[in-house]
């Protein structure tokens, strides 16, 4: 199985023409691009054009066609009006970030009830070639536009596994389940790197990002089962009051469940948040999962959560993400 996202091949834009005038120009477009030695293909009543030829196509459209009746998409993503295509072209910098691996990891501690470090979450940090910072919302938005989410997610996972050699505690590593279409194929490189580094699989906790937004639970279970069969652990991130039923959570069997920070911050003084936190705790205990409160910033919230039975905690109260693990001497890699 191969896809443009996985292999970082040149983007191919699918272009759909509407209207009699535009449709009558299809062969003219093909001839025009081929005369300039640019790749173009007619497929299922739409055009496929590589990115290297898309600007020439746009110039042709401006002169000869009704651009408001032209639509495009990448892979099987939704169709968009042609006027939006510049956003996708300008997001091309994401390809260089991925190809050149302009990424590192920061470590944020996860502590137990006595504030001893139990684990670290490894968080991806990106930068341009000039060293300037790229913020997560920028990079994931660009990756989504260009169909590069899998390639970016894979880079983040492999980088985190590599950086886990700097610590000897458990490492929480994020992944986006919607970017994985086949666990056996897509996660092979992650498993291989962990084995190559000689790291015990039970030191890794793969954390489902955006748990609440996962729609295909069967697909998610296939991924988590694959991880579990390989000896890895996994966690559900950002779980809150709206997340499914006990039956669904038990079906997924997470080793850890992370309470969304919006229910953690201010919980010591907010009855509604207290109710959600208590309900979450009961769910975790019922299915045999370890409850973890994330986003803890105040001593009051920490003490309240600890008092009712939470076991693990993460947040600025214990340390912000840092290039060097806080409160820990790095292991030589």
Automatic annotation (TrEMBL):
> What PANTHER family does the database record attribute to this sequence?
CYCLIC DI-GMP PHOSPHODIESTERASE PDEF, SIGNALING PROTEIN YKOW
Q: Know the name of this protein?
A: Diguanylate phosphodiesterase
Q: What's the domain of life for this entry? A: Bacteria
Q: Spell out the InterPro entries in the cross-references.
A: Cyclic-di-GMP_PDE-like (IPR050706), EAL_dom (IPR001633), EAL_sf (IPR035919)
Q: Which SUPFAM superfamilies match?
A: EAL domain-like
- The EAL domain sits at 87-333
Organism encoding this protein: Ureibacillus manganicus DSM 26584
PROSITE patterns registered for this protein in UniProt: EAL
Q: Which GO terms describe its molecular function?
A: cyclic-guanylate-specific phosphodiesterase activity
């Amino acid at each position: 199985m191969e896809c443009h996202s996985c292999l970082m091949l040149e983007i191919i834009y699918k272009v759909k023409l509407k209207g009699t005038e535009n449709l009558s120009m299809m062969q003219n477009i093909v001839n025009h691009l081929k005369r300039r030695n640019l790749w173009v293909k007619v497929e299922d009543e739409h055009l496929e054009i590589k990115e290297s030829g898309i600007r020439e196509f746009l110039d042709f459209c401006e002169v000869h066609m009704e651009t408001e009746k032209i639509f495009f998409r990448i892979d099987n993503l939704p169709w968009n009006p042609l006027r939006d295509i510049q956003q996708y072209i300008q997001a091309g910098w994401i390809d260089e970030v991925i190809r050149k691996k302009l990424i590192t990891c920061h470590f944020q501690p996860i502590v137990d009830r006595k504030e001893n470090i139990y684990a670290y979450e490894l968080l991806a940090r990106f930068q341009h070639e000039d060293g300037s910072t790229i913020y997560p919302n920028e990079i994931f938005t660009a990756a989504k536009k260009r169909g590069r989410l899998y390639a970016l997610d894979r880079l983040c996972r492999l980088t985190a596994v590599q950086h886990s050699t700097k610590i000897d505690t458990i490492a929480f590593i994020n992944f986006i389940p919607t970017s994985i279409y086949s666990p056996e194929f897509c996660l092979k490189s992650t498993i291989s790197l962990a084995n190559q580094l000689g790291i015990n699989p039970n030191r890794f906790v793969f954390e489902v990002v955006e748990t609440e937004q996962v729609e295909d639970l069967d697909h998610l279970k296939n991924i988590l089962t694959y991880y579990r069969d390989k000896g890895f652990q996994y966690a559900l991130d950002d779980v809150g009051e709206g997340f499914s039923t006990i039956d669904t959570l038990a079906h997924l069997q997470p080793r850890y469940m992370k309470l969304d920070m919006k229910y953690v911050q201010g919980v010591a003084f907010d009855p509604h948040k207290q109710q959600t936190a208590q309900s979450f705790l009961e769910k975790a205990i019922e299915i045999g999962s370890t409850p973890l409160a994330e986003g803890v910033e105040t001593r009051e919230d920490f003490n309240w959560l600890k008092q009712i039975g939470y076991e693990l905690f993460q947040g600025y109260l214990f340390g912000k993400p840092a290039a060097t693990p806080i409160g820990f001497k790095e292991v030589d890699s």
